[in-house]
Amino acid sequence: MPSNLTQTLLDPVLAADPAGPRITFYDDATGERVEVSAVTLANWAAKTANLLCDEFGFEVGGRVSVLLPAHWQTAAALLGIWWAGGEVILGADDSADVAMVSADRLGEAPDVDEVLAFSLDAFGKAVPDLPIGMTDYATSVRVHGDQFRVSGSGTGAGALDGRSVEQVLAVARERAAARSLTAADRVLSSASWTTADELIDGLLAVLVVGASLVQVAQPDEEKNVRRTETEKVTVTLD
């Protein structure tokens, strides 16, 4: 039976270092800093999976069109999709069952039955003036349980843009090995997650070895120099 991608990525760190930082997110344009532990990341992923299943009737093998930036909430949402046995399709896809779209890209949302809109606000504010027919992620996800029980096989045929769980994990492990990443590493990155290869390089290769990620949006290079020391960065992704 294929493994569940989210459990494969999170179970080891939940056992070894549940409270340590897993993703630390910065936005240098706004001054935002959010640090998320493995437990918190897992809780948000579970809430997302429960939202998909309980509100949208999402089933194993379902497909989710994702138009979100490199962000800690995006990571949680992706893990939620995979936990529910879904496939992530990066970009607009009218054949998907659900779409997840950031507030600044609502006009690009595909023509699907269910659209989740993400404000990506650090304090959980809703997307203002949300068009009729779209669901606000921040206000909807918070009422769902922070534990998720996998049903059936727990995974569909595809995981990421047509790649299976096994293929995604294999490439993630290859990319981690190529950079000699280990669980002891603290990885600094400003890379985008707009393609499958970018997502694997910038997020999954870090998570698969139990390393932690410092993800910076709109980076200020001077701040990044200081951040390397304050965040105890050991590896910087190009």
List the SSEs and their pairings.
Layout: H1 5-16, E1 21-27, E2 32-37, H2 38-56, E3 63-67, H3 72-83, E4 87-90, E5 98-102, E6 114-118, E7 134-136, H4 137-141, H5 165-178, E8 186-189, H6 196-207, E9 212-217, H7 221-230, E10 235-236
Parallel strand pairs: 1-9, 3-4, 3-5, 5-6, 6-7, 8-9, 8-10
Antiparallel strand pairs: 1-2
Helix pairs in contact: 2-3, 5-6
DSSP strand content: 15-25%
Widest sheet: strand order?
Answer: 2-1-9-8-10
From the alpha-carbon coordinates, what is the Rg to the nearest angstrom?
17 Å
- Count every helix, treating DSSP H or I runs of 4 or more residues as helices: 7
Coarse morphology = globular
Helix and strand content put the structural class at alpha/beta
Largest sheet: 5 strands, mixed
Q: What is the H/E order?
A: HEEHEHEEEEHHEHEHE
Regions with pLDDT < 50 over 5+ consecutive residues? none
Instruction: Report the average pLDDT across residues.
Output: 95
The span between the termini is 36 Å
Q: What key attributes describe this structure?
A:
238 residues; 7 helices; globular; five-stranded mixed beta sheet; 10 strands
How would you describe what is shown here?
With 238 residues, the chain is α/β, with parallel strands linked by helices. It is globular, with a radius of gyration of 17 Å. The model has no long low-confidence stretch (mean pLDDT 95). The protein has helices spanning 5-16, 38-56, 72-83, 137-141, 165-178, 196-207, 221-230, and strands at residues 21-27, 32-37, 63-67, 87-90, 98-102, 114-118, 134-136, 186-189, 212-217, 235-236. The protein has seven helices and ten strands. The strands form two sheets. The protein has a five-stranded mixed β-sheet. A five-stranded parallel β-sheet has the order 4-3-5-6-7. Helix 2 crosses helix 3 (72-83) and helix 5 (165-178) crosses helix 6. The N and C termini lie far apart (36 Å).
